[in-house]
Amino acid sequence: MNSDNTLIKQRAVSTAVLAALSFVGVNYALGASLRLVNPDRFQMQTHNWAWWATKALLEHNQPVDVLLMGSSLVQRVVDDGDATYLNRPLDARFHRNSCMLEEKLSALWHRPVRTWSYAVGGLHASDAAIVTKTLIRGEHQPGAIVYGIAPRDLMNNLLAAPCATETFKLMSHLADQSDVAYQARTTNGEKLDYVVSTTFEKTLPLYAYRSELAQVFRRRVKQEVSELADSHLGGSNAAQQLDLAERIKLQMMPEECDNELLTLPYNRSASASEDSKNSYLCCYRPFRPKFYNAQKYFLEAMLKTCSDRGIQVVFVNMPLRKDNFDVMEPGFYERYLRDLRGLASRYQASVVDMNRQDLFSDRDFSDQVHLTGDGAIKLVTLSSPALGQVLHKPSFAMNGGTAK
Fold first, then answer.
1. What is the pTM of this model?
2. How many CB atoms lie within 10 A of CB 128?
3. How many CA atoms lie within 13 A of 241 on its CB side?
4. CA Rg, the chain, in Å?
5. Across the chain, what does the average pLDDT equal?
6. What does the alpha-carbon distance between residue 119 and residue 52 come to, in Å, rounded to a whole number?
7. Dist CA 115 CA 143 (whole Å)
């Protein structure tokens, strides 16, 4: 009986070892096949806001004088502001320059000025740093970066760690980010997970393609579900069935933005103010020193990268509605502004403070932090003279810009 049990155990161990070896062998074979095929890993990534912004920048081959960077606060200024200024709809996926700012700066300097926007919803200081390090170089290097910044860029409790953003994940697929991997993870568990993942990627080549393969699979499933929805959802109430079909499709992959995303001119009579107070209450409270200091580290890293590459940095402290300050902890905003100015001074950057209650009223905002189309026009109009004074025009010629 004991000999039978021993034999069973030996066979089980042998089977497990054979299965493990087979798994590793198949993994290496598939991994080698992928490397041989050399798929476009960028195209395989999720087509979210960060992907569209990156794609546009990589395909842009014209010199840029001023690169605009920031979160949805800046994205709204570029998209909603220009749509209202030009009085026509704009596709937010492809609209990547500020026509208003170009006109204002060109008029001030009496020469053409080109802008480019890498403004992505949810962008934090860590994202700005890693995008600058990875993308803003060579032919994509501007004379100056104008970064529209706000307190949430450094303090956001809705984000587990800097490495969790869509932008950070995308940049990690485009270039090696091991030099900042630990700073982007704020807990020991996150750091351990990173070590384990990188070990698996080295040991199992196919594991390195896990996100791309999952995305390809999801797109295939979405396509099949879309075809089923289109073919089987019919009936007398076509409009309602169509709406149901669209909702089924969207729920399969809500984060992709492959369809037209129109930004319309601001309609004062049809627009209602939104209330994001609870959301920002969660962002700001409680104050997490470890997260804040990590974002501060990345903000300084961005400034150092720009200093090393000869790129001027100008921070525009974005306007906030008065009730946004009500959800901040006492002293937090003063700390944020003090740290921002301190870092800017250390790296010869500038701060243009547009968060002034005498300049903006509640009607300029669509919620606690985002400007309406009219508010965006006001911001560009009021900030242009200050930007015209602090931007170093000679740096544009040295960095390949259009100004001469």
1. 0.85
2. 29
3. 11
4. 25
5. 86
6. 10
7. 10
